[in-house]
Amino acid sequence: xxxxxxxSSPSLNPHADLPPQLAxxxxxxxxxxxxxxxxxxxxGSSTAQDLKVTLLxxxxxxxxxxRFGPSILVEAGKQRLLFDCGRGATQRIEQLKVPFAEVDxxxxxxxxxxxVVGIPDLWLIGWPRGRKSPFRVWGxxxxxxxxxxxxxxxQFDIHIRRDVDxxxxxxxxxxxxxxxxxxxxxxxxxxKITAFTVDxxxxxxxxxxxxxxxxxxxxxxxxxxxxxNLIRFSEGTDVLIHExxxxxxFRSKNPSVTSERAQRVxxxxxxxxxxxxxxxxxxxxxxxYSHIVPGDTTDLIPLTRKTYSGPLEVGEDLMSIEIGEKVVxxxxxx
Length: 334
Ligand SMILES: [Zn+2]
Ligand SMILES: [Zn+2]
Known about the structure:
The protein is an alpha/beta fold. The chain has twelve helices and 16 strands. It has a domain of 222 residues: Ribonuclease Z/Hydroxyacylglutathione hydrolase-like (Metallo-beta-lactamase, Chain A, 4-Layer Sandwich), CATH 3.60.15. The site of one zinc ion (ZN) has 7 residues, from helix 4.
């Protein structure tokens, strides 16, 4: 199912007051035909030239079959960039039929295990599946060290496949890791990636990312409680993908978790009401939830509507969002 949000008219809000037929009734009939033609052309052209975002995993640490671990694929022109690599990211990439060799780089928001546990799978299976150049990983302080430890941990497999058995190309398993801080961290063929600091409570450092391409952009919050810095870096963005936690649902679905621990967890994240306030200030053409805690909460939309009335989608695994003249959401078939 597709949902289209007109990115260039004032009626971005699906609850806008003016019916569309009223908006065109003052023009001659052929204006409507031209407008229709223009819409079809724009919709048809929203392909390789646009920014395309696919939610590979919209879950959290809790293992679920319907929401894999956090991971988002951003395609901009010919570049394919991955943000976080949670549980099942490799399966989702395979499901999309994206060749592993064509995943250009991995960016990490922070080093909580739910965001990085899929790295060895992608790194080591992407290699026999065709990657011939180094596996590039950018992330906050500690990324380089973590990747060096992973190289050590998987020495047996690397040695056997590279030197003894399959004789796979040595370059394909090399890791190029880099610790990054707030600022522009990547610029290539029209794609600009800016990392910015978010507020994940005691979990420091934690980053969000803004990806700009050909006049369009998407912001990924990573894990954060409400962050003024995120609002600053989200200015003018087309799409804001934000994490969310429903504390009431979390408590009721995890009765064994003490209320003190539940409060501590909630203090690291953003409630739907708080996210709504952020969306209302940023005014993206579309707001999307991902990293949904707990994964089966059903109250996100009503709670968000207390503070925000604009375009909003609750993310699901394999939902994709094309960002061009229009913002078009494709939901995976049920
Ligand atoms: Zn997380
Ligand atoms: Zn986290």
